[in-house]
């Protein structure tokens, strides 16, 4: 079993529990260079998304080292996804870390989203 299979196996149980609750989920995916956050409805439709690939985020990160692959960028994405969710009328979500450890960039994104008004 390689790293990706292990991560997907860890994330599967979380997704099952969130599906039983029938609530919107904040799904996070990270790569070495970027971090992505999507708010997904119980019907598996993407309601809101944000990532370090967006032009506005890249403009704010311009001049910084690491650009999209650091905790500061993750916090910015968390704040943006929370603001977009609140505009869409969504205040409560379940956090789906997709099998990633709740540490570093994933933790920074979650804390920024909480500070911006989302409730997990």
From TrEMBL:
CDD domains: Ribosomal_L18_L5e (cd00432). GO terms for biological process: translation. Keywords: Ribonucleoprotein, Ribosomal protein, RNA-binding, rRNA-binding. Part of the 50S ribosomal subunit; part of the 5S rRNA/L5/L18/L25 subcomplex. Contacts the 5S and 23S rRNAs. It comes from the Bacteria. Pfam families: Ribosomal_L18p (PF00861). It comes from Duganella phyllosphaerae. HAMAP family: Ribosomal_uL18_B. This is Large ribosomal subunit protein uL18.
């Amino acid at each position: 079993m390689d790293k990706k299979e292990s991560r997907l196996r860890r994330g599967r149980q979380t997704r099952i529990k969130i599906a039983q609750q029938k609530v919107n989920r904040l799904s996070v995916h990270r790569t070495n260079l970027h971090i992505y956050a999507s708010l997904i409805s119980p019907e598996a439709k993407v309601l809101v998304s944000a990532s370090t690939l967006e032009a506005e985020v890249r403009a704010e990160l311009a001049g910084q080292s690491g650009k999209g692959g650091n905790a500061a960028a993750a916090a910015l994405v968390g704040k943006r996804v929370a603001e977009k969710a609140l505009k869409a009328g969504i205040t409560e979500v379940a956090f789906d870390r997709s099998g990633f450890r709740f540490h570093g960039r994933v933790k920074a994104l979650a804390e920024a989203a909480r500070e911006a008004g989302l409730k997990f």
